């Protein structure tokens, strides 16, 4: 089935476009995301026919129809279950899951956390617009507390999920965040996701111009984003703000992260935390993920966590191959006979 | 009782072992079954155990049982009423004595009839002291507790460990009583406890003590022998239905060279299929224990999209959870087998008890127009053939197939004649590898039988997208066109109707016309065939047809039913097949016989009911 014997064709972005015109609303953040995915795929070193996109239900889940790969548009919340079965069955395929905040975190919450903890090599992209779009504007599991929507006219009484923190808690081995309008950044994150082997979670802040327009303007507007976004890079200090003067420092007294200004109060760049996405312990990644909820802190984007573990499908196939090696090729009659038989003449 | 002079031959016997959940009755039952299988008798078994793993010791709710019917003639069921009841404590006696045949043999461990056990079983006085009991049954009261302790004196085992060996005393006694050779069991104990030599020795000692008790007891026990049956020549093994289903799927992997992918979530009484299939890795089986019932079927559909032969196993509550997924498999037209090992419902119902109450939900329990083939296995060994048949239909017709078994078939066992390779079905699995429409690939371009092609990821040039939205009848792209939808609904229905070409006609057991035709399906086969056999032997005008196929129904069924004045449908539900037949064959109005007590239908009870109708 897989075509490993032939050379990898040279692809362009166009090779990944199905030719079906996306039916998203004008100005939807999904356009920018699919654009980046189609730009990144020619460089991931995989054949078009070996790449599969699986989605659930919602605006984002129409994604596979617009990609010229194998694809399945499945049931609400259930995409990770199909993708997990496919990837365990056919580990040589590259499997992407496209989902939204309602799809992955409400109806599909169970499948989501289990996909993360198993460490099956799935590249899950969560388009987070903090609203239900396809059902026309209800509160979602990532909507802010107090959010007024059609189903919460007096404000949402429910605390939201912070998706990367949830993914880290569930055991994902790759956790990242980017933003639809930060095209170049998104491209870099997608490439890192493509290169990772294991459960791979990427949250993409995505603007819904119809039902939740401007959800992210407070961090994406040109005038504010330099102070509002913390661009994490592995091995580099966590600096942000104009001229990279602000930094994130770990305070051992409070066991919390704090914002410091380099050059003020004796703070030097050496005091600033150096980002280590490969750190096995997830605690710091978890603290960074939660900064976006804290007033006075920037929103981190980039890769929170990127650690290497054996994947579930590798372990599964190691067991299968060990069983095959131990018992050899048993013919069907032997299989049927088992070990405890008697004869009737 | 007089002193027996010699071994008495009997044609069939039904024995039930009952005790506390911790008494090892399931093991005793399966070991004794094995002895009879090796002796060449036909047999059928029925384990009956509580849902709780360990209910309070000695309590009425903690009683676990195992019934085996073996004989030198064809055995259809685990037996209506036990001829012999082996009761290990008062609670087991209390809950099972009403089933013992009048005049039957009652073997009890009188050592367990202590004041506290009697109280737990709600006995005001010791029933073993009751003369009425001795008049009604042949009572053999043995202090197995004490005799086990004696046998293990000086073994160094704790009293708890000693108590655990008691079931081997009962087994030894039954070996003697039914003239089975000890050696095979001693070997079996060696095999089973090989890693713990102290238990090998202890269990062997106790087993021998039980056997010796029979031989030396001065109570004049009659010894019996059940000769080998006249089963067709061949090599046999004993299988439960769940094991047989797993074996069927592994055989499909072997025959096709394709991966069989099982996505499953543990649920009583289907879990054993997952256990067994996880041991078939070297044959091309991949098992995946999902996080829930929905993910279990989802993973199987995902694997099927990738070209594997997907299957999922469950029981009623799980089937309910899977219904949206089954609809997706219908509209996506991917091969998939869903096995429902039915149990008592609704809701959690009676997890360890058998029932046939998922027929209608299997046929109609999905939203939208979502037909699929439905097959029901008819005996434990038939689960093997049914699993292969379901997989063959699923791949040939690109459709999900529902395979119904039940708790009785799944846990029950019978001899399975091991087929020769030449007797196995031919299952061709084909993938589309080239464009099928002007140089392009149209995933819903069908063949003459309305089957769509199966192109799998990794195939260059055939990249395509499918899903749960209605599809254009050719390209498979999303279509909201009303007339296209109508066409697709009718096409999917017609495709499933076309499966009739693979549905064999029903065979009539008995005359082709007469007074009463018994129509049964699934796990009641043995009971209904047994009743028909009995009644025909009495010269009654009763015939029997059994349905393995519920959708599509066999072509000749309507005509066959016309040959009889009355149709009678015995079922372990409240009349689901009867309802279905009324709808499918206007004018047919079956007499119902329904038992919903968690157990297989008794032959005598059904035969009695037929006599009333005649």
Characteristics of this structure?
heterodimer; A: alpha/beta; Rossmann fold; 8-stranded mixed β-sheet; 3-stranded antiparallel β-sheet; 11 helices; B: 614 residues; alpha/beta; Pyruvate-ferredoxin Oxidoreductase, domain 3; 7-stranded mixed β-sheet; 22 helices
Short summary:
The complex is a heterodimer of chains A (about 350) and B (about 625). With about 350 residues, chain A is an alpha/beta fold.
Descriptive notes:
The complex is a heterodimer of chains A (345) and B (614). Chain A has 345 residues and is an alpha/beta fold. Chain A has a domain at 13-215 and 310-315: Thiamin diphosphate (ThDP)-binding fold, Pyr/PP domains (Rossmann fold, 3-Layer(aba) Sandwich). Chain A has helices spanning 29-40, 79-89, 101-107, 109-118, 163-170, 183-195, 217-220, 222-228, 283-289, 312-327, 332-337, and strands at 51-55, 70-73, 94-100, 122-128, 174-179, 200-205, 229-232, 239-240, 246-251, 256-261, 299-306, 342-344. In chain A, helix 6 links the parallel strand 5 and strand 6 (200-205). Chain B has 614 residues and is an alpha/beta fold. Chain B folds into four domains: 8-225, Pyruvate-ferredoxin oxidoreductase, PFOR, domain III (Pyruvate-ferredoxin Oxidoreductase, domain 3, 3-Layer(aba) Sandwich), CATH 3.40.920; 237-423, Thiamin diphosphate (ThDP)-binding fold, Pyr/PP domains (Rossmann fold); 430-501, no CATH class; 514-613, Rossmann fold. Helix content of chain B is 37%, strand content 20%. Chain B has 22 helices and 22 strands. In chain B, the strands form five sheets. A seven-stranded mixed beta sheet of chain B has the order 11-10-12-13-15-14-20. In chain B, strands 3-4-2-5-6-7 form a six-stranded mixed beta sheet, sandwiched between helices. In chain B, strands 19-18-21-22 form a four-stranded parallel beta sheet, sandwiched between helices. In chain B, strand 14 (374-376), helix 16 and strand 15 form a beta-alpha-beta unit. The model of chain B has no long low-confidence stretch (mean pLDDT 95). The chains are: A alpha/beta (345), B alpha/beta (614). Chains A and B meet through strand 2, helix 2, helix 4, helix 10 and helix 11 of A and helix 1, strand 9, helix 10, helix 12 and helix 14 of B. Strand 2 of chain A pairs parallel with strand 17 (465-467) of chain B.
């Amino acid at each position: 089935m897989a075509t490993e014997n032939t050379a990898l064709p040279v692809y362009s972005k166009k090779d990944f476009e199905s030719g079906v015109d996306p039916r998203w609303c004008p100005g939807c953040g999904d356009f920018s995301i699919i654009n980046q995915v189609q730009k990144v795929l020619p460089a991931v070193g995989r054949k078009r026919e070996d790449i599969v996109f699986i989605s659930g239900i919602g605006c984002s889940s129409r994604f596979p129809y617009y990609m010229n790969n194998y694809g399945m548009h499945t049931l609400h919340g259930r995409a990770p279950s199909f993708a997990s079965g496919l990837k365990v069955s056919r580990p040589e395929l590259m499997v992407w899951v496209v989902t939204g905040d309602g799809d992955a975190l409400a109806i599909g919450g169970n499948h989501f956390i289990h996909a993360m903890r198993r460490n099956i090599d799935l590249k899950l992209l969560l388009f987070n617009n903090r609203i239900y779009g396809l059902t026309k504007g209800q509160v979602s599991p990532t909507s802010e507390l107090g959010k007024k929507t059609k189903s919460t006219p007096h404000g949402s009484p429910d605390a939201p999920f912070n998706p990367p923190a949830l993914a880290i808690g569930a055991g994902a081995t790759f956790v990242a965040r980017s933003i639809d309008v930060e095209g170049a950044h998104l491209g870099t994150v997608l490439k890192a996701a493509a290169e990772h082997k294991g459960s791979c979670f990427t949250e993409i802040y995505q603007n819904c111009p119809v039902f939740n327009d401007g959800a992210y303007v407070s961090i994406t507007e040109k005038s504010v984003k330099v102070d509002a976004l913390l661009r994490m890079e592995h091995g580099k200090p966590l600096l942000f703000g104009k001229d990279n003067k602000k930094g994130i420092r770990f305070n051992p007294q409070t066991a919390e992260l704090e914002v410091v200004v380099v050059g003020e109060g004796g703070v030097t760049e050496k005091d600033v935390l150096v980002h280590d996405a490969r750190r096995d312990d997830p605690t710091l990644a978890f603290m960074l993920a939660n900064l976006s909820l804290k007033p006075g802190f920037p929103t981190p984007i980039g890769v929170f966590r990127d650690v290497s573990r054996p994947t579930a499908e590798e372990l599964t196939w190691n067991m299968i191959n060990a069983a095959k090696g131990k018992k050899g090729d048993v013919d069907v009659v032997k299989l049927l006979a088992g070990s405890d038989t008697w004869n009737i003449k | 009782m007089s002193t027996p002079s010699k071994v008495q031959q009997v044609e069939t016997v039904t024995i039930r072992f009952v005790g506390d959940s911790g008494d090892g009755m399931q093991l005793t039952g399966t070991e004794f079954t094995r002895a009879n299988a090796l002796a060449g008798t036909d047999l059928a078994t029925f384990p009956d155990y509580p849902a709780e793993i360990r209910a309070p010791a000695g309590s009425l709710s903690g009683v676990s049982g195992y019934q085996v019917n073996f004989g030198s003639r064809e055995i259809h069921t685990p037996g209506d009423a036990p001829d012999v009841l082996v009761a290990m404590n008062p609670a087991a006696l209390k809950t099972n004595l009403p089933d013992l045949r009048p005049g039957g043999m009652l073997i009890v461990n009188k050592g367990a009839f202590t004041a506290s056990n009697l109280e737990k079983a709600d006995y005001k006085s010791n029933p073993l002291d009751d003369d009425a009991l001795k008049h009604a049954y042949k009572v053999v009261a043995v202090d197995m507790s004490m005799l086990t302790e004696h046998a293990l004196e000086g073994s160094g085992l704790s009293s708890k460990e000693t108590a655990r060996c008691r079931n081997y005393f009962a087994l030894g006694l039954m070996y003697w009583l039914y003239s089975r050779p000890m050696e095979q069991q001693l070997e079996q104990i060696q095999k089973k406890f090989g890693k713990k030599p102290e238990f090998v020795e202890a269990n062997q000692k106790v087993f021998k003590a039980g056997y010796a008790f029979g031989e030396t007891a001065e109570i004049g026990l009659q010894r019996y022998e059940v000769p080998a049956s006249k089963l067709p020549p061949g090599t046999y093994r004993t299988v439960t239905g769940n094991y047989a289903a797993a074996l069927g799927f592994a055989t499909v992997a072997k025959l096709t060279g394709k991966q069989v992918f099982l996505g499953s979530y543990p649920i009583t009484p289907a879990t054993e299929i997952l256990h067994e299939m996880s041991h078939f890795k070297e044959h091309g089986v991949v098992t995946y224990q999902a996080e829930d019932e929905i993910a279990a079927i989802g993973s199987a559909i995902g694997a099927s999209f990738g070209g594997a032969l997907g299957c999922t196993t469950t029981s009623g509550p799980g089937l309910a959870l899977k219904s949206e997924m089954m609809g997706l498999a219908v509209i996506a037209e991917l091969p998939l087998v869903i096995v429902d090992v039915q149990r008592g419902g609704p809701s959690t119902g009676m997890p360890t008890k058998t029932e046939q109450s998922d027929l209608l939900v299997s046929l109609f329990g999905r939203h939208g127009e979502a037909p699929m083939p439905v097959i029901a296995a008819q005996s434990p060994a038939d689960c093997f053939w049914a699993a292969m048949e379901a997989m063959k239909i699923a791949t040939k017709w690109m459709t999900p197939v529902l395979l119904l078994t039940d708790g009785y078939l799944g846990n029950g066992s019978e001899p399975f004649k091991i087929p020769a390779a030449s007797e196995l079905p031919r299952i061709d699995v084909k993938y589309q590898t080239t464009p099928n429409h002007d140089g392009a690939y149209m995933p819903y371009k069908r063949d003459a039988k309305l089957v769509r092609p199966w192109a799998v990821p990794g195939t260059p040039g055939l990249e395509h997208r499918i899903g749960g939205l209605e599809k254009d009848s050719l390209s498979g792209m999303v279509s909201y066109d009303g007339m296209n939808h109508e066409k697709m609904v009718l096409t999917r229905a017609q495709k499933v109707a076309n499966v009739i070409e693979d549905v064999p006609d029903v065979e009539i057991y008995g005359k082709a016309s007469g007074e009463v035709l018994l129509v049964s399906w699934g796990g009641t086969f043995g009971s209904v065939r047994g009743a028909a056999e009995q009644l025909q032997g009495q010269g009654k005008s009763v015939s029997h047809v059994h349905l393995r196929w519920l959708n599509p129904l066999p072509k000749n069924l309507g005509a066959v039913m016309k040959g009889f004045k009355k149709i009678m449908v015995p079922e372990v539900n409240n009349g689901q097949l009867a309802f279905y037949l009324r709808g499918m064959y206007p004018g047919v109005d079956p007499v119902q016989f329904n038992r919903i007590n968690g157990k297989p239908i008794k032959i005598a009870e059904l035969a009695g009911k037929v006599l009333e109708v005649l």
